[in-house]
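Quick one: structure tokens for this chain, please?
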Amino acid sequence: MPHVYVISDHHFGHANIIDFESRPFTDAEQMTEVMIEKWNAVVQKEDKVFHLGDFSFLNKEKTSAVVSRLNGYKTLIMGNHDRGRTRSWWLSAGFDEVSEHPIVYGGFFFMSHEPMYMNKHMPYVNLHGHIHSQKYEGGQYVNVCVEHWEYTPVSFDTIKAMVVPSEEQ
């Protein structure tokens, strides 16, 4: 049975992110290779991955080359750094689906690039990226930026176990 994964903020090709976020890479090329390897170590070809934005700073040819090397059916929810390119650009770069807006998954999870406003009375959990190594307090937010997950897509089952009481799963 296929698995579902979530991840965000790879910033492929963005050399400055290494310094900005103290990433453990010597350069953008090493960062790209390690992150592709970590993705493919957990994601199989039949799995589904939701990428919550800020995927690549590379041109279309190089972005397509990265996307084609990544396992799984890939859905991009566009982030602030992705929005300079059109939805059709990302589809032609190899994503299977692209959304310009947050989506609701499983009737319970808001998946967005930027954290969304949530109060304690809202019966949802916000899976988000954008804030990199920072973290919002409370059980209604799960930051899926690569910095929190060792640059590896995190399974939806892992996220559900974190936020949904076991009797409700």
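The chain is about 25% helix and 20% strand.
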